[in-house]
Amino acid sequence: MSTTIAAGTKVDGVALSVLLFFFVLVTVGGFLAAKWRRPESMHSLDEWGLGGRGFGTIVTWFLLGGDLYTAYTFVAVPAAMFATGAVSGFFAVPYTIVVYPLIFIFMPRMWSVAHRHGYVTPADFVRGRYGSRGLSLAVAVTGLIATMPYIALQLVGIQAVLDTLGLGGTGNRFIKDLPLFIAFAVLAAYTYSSGLRAPALIAFVKDTLIYLVIVVAIIYVGVKIGFGDMFHAAEAKMATKTKTGAATGAFIPNDKTYWAYSSLAFGSALALFMYPHSMTAVLAGRSRNVIRRNAAILPVYSLMLGLLALLGFAAIAAKTNVIGSDGKPNAQLAVPHFFHDAFPSWFAGVAFAAIAIGALVPAAIMSIAASNLFTRNIYREFFKPDATPKQEAQVSKIVSLVVKFGALLFVLTLDKQNAINFQLLGGVWILQTIVAIVAGLYTRWFHRWALLTGWAVGMTYGTVMAYQQKSAATAHFGGSLAKFPFSHTTVYIGFSALVVNLVVSVVLTFVLRAFNAPVGADATSPEDYYSDSEGPAVRVLGTEGGLAEPGVARA
Amino acid sequence: MREPSPRRLPTGVAAAAGVLLIIPVLALLIVPLYAKKGPQLWGFPFFYWYQFLWVFLASGFTYSAYVLIGRARRGER
Q: Please, what's the b/e burial string for A7-29 (b: 16 or more CB within 10 A of its CB; e: otherwise)?
């Protein structure tokens, strides 16, 4: 089994075989998923794109867990811990804890109104609530451009694993990229045929592997390295001065970085459930209670994420070498290399399978969410208002292929740093949809034109600020922190942009209301936000303007 | 068992659930509360074990809010 692909690169045959075994297993599962809770017909977005809107607590738990905790997180969070410590890495723990009370509060309302009106995407809701095609398009486009680089980054996770296995060498470009290409082609094929059921089923495998791997790894660290020694090694590294005289990183945030740490945690938590793919997994739930119960049990994943983050410190203590097969140091390799050095090949293979499958699940859900956005809010809205459910499903399936190959091309042809920059920007961008969506769940007070302007200002401000950040490695997009406007406090750019957005939206709403600008029709009614699955589900297929009672729009 | 469509919660219940949900958020977002090294636990600095502890506490608080809301809903009938 041990062969060499490119000159000088040794392939770890045992680990590769284990990885291939699990890959074949999930591929079979992915195709069989179409038969799971078999619907009468797969030819609608409710079935293909939302798995029939019938997932219970357990399936939703695996689906949301598989969706929100991506391979990129598994690789990037420990990598950030390894490179610069707590402020850039460990904030992921409070971030993924704080997000659940927020989901508990907001998402049942979203679920109810979406259930009543047959909404599939957040932009569907905005369209119905504000009667504004412009605002709906803004939300849809933001979702699309924020999701695309996120899918691309899942590939970066797989690449780190393949590189560690010795498949990433500097040999023939075509052979080097072939494994990634095959993995994505197979993923695209079963997502096409099974829709959301495929990632829902595969998520079981992914999470079982991840939990197994993390438990073993933490026991290993406790016994072989010792937690005390691990933290000492990390503290020593973070305190070491770099060439510029600054410390390498932060072991524990200090008074200059308190706001950075908490705004990163809070801003990311707000962004997380605005992403189209989290919305997709939430709307696939069977009832409001499925969502609330999940908000209480999903933090278990944050425990796992926190332990995984500590492996970045373990790699420091173990003096893990992070030189890639291209000869350059790359912190993203910290965790894969740590497993490769510390464990027998077969177990390293299990860990690599966990990371690789951990990339496939969210990539599938994200591509489904992106295609639903395109189909509902661009194709049907602007090109074919009379599209049948079957046509919608067909367009979505094709778009899901386009989206995945787009992401693949993105990673293969552009510098990897671009994908990381865009993902950073994606978080800033998606936060700008929050005023329209979350405020819209509670009130129609905001004016649609004010929201659109606030969105545009927030997007521009966030993009410019992110562009201006320098770091040792890059001239632009050097980080996600900048000074809050008119202050010297460093905070998360997305958070500042959201505040700017909110201020603009509030001020302009007052102005527009003073001039009696037309508020647009509201297709929803107050009780829609409380309805549960027992109530009648209304599928509204046509455009919804004009359905509203006159009084509701001003409520 | 058919449940009627839930309506708006009684104000007291909604406020209590709100408090249960805001506690974990504040406990983690007020960073000076826990950005320190000691006391240590099994070699973990306070900063790290405090946040791990809140994984479980947040889950407990959120579940309490869930139970509270569920009881209020059942009590309506």
A: eebebbeebbebbeebbeebbeb
**Buried (b) or exposed (e) across A275-303, using 16+ Cβ within 10 A?**
bbbbbbbbbbbbbbbbbbbbbbbbbbbbb
Question: Domains of chain A: which residue ranges?
Answer: 13-33+42-419
Which of A227, A264, A293 to probe by mutation at the B interface, max B CB count within 10 Å?
A227
Q: Does B35 touch chain A (CB under 8 A)?
A: yes
Give me the sign of the Cα torsion angle A135, A375, A400, A126.
positive
* Phi and psi angles of residue A519, each rounded to the nearest 5 degrees, phi first: -90, -15
> Residue B19: inside a domain, yes or no?
no
CA torsion sign, A190 to A407 to A306 to A331? positive
B17 lies in a domain?
no
pLDDT tens string A374-426: 888 888 888 877 878 888 888 888 888 888 888 888 777 766 666 667 777 88
**Does residue B54 sit at the A interface (CB-CB below 8 Å)?**
yes
- Contact (CB<8Å) B51/A97: yes
User: Which residues make beta-bridge pairs with A285?
Assistant: A55
Number of separate domains in chain B: 1
User: Inter-chain contact A101–B3, Cβ cutoff 8 Å?
Assistant: no
Kindly report the backbone phi and psi dihedral angles of residue A247, in degrees, each rounded to the nearest multiple of 5, phi listed first. Answer: -70, 155
Among chain B residues, CA nearest to A259: B31
A101, B24: Cβ pair inside 8 Å? yes
Q: Is B49 in CB contact (< 8 Å) with chain A?
A: no
On the question of pLDDT at A485 being above 80, the answer is no
Question: What does R_g of chain A's alpha carbons equal in angstroms?
Answer: 23
**CA neighbor of A403 nearest in space, from A156, A179, A148, A196:** A148
Q: Which residues of B touch A105 (CB under 8 A)?
A: 18, 21
Task: Indicate if the pLDDT at residue A547 is higher than 50.
Answer: no
Which residues of chain A have a CB within 8 Å of the CB of B56? 299, 303
Checking DSSP bridges between strand A481-483 and strand A490-492, what pairing results, if any?
Answer: antiparallel
pLDDT at A5: 39
Q: Which domain holds residue B33?
A: 25-75
Alpha-carbon Rg for chain B in angstroms: 17
Q: Percent of chain A scored above 90 by pLDDT?
A: 2
| B25 in reach of chain A (CB within 8 A) | yes
Chain A residues inside the 8 Å CB shell of B57: none
The tens digit of pLDDT for each residue in A2-51 reads 333 333 456 777 778 878 888 888 777 777 777 776 666 667 777 777 77
* CATH no., domain A13-33+42-419: 1.20.1730.10
pLDDT value for A541 = 39
- Would you say A247 and B60 are in contact if contact means Cβ atoms under 8 Å apart? no
Residue A211 has pLDDT above 80, yes or no: yes
In a domain, B37, yes or no: yes
The ipTM (two decimal places) reads: 0.85
The mean per-residue pLDDT over the stretch A504-525 comes to 83
pLDDT of residue A518: 79
Asked whether residue B49 is assigned to any structural domain, the reply reads yes
B15-68 residue pLDDT tens: 888 888 888 888 888 888 887 777 878 878 888 889 999 989 988 888 888 888
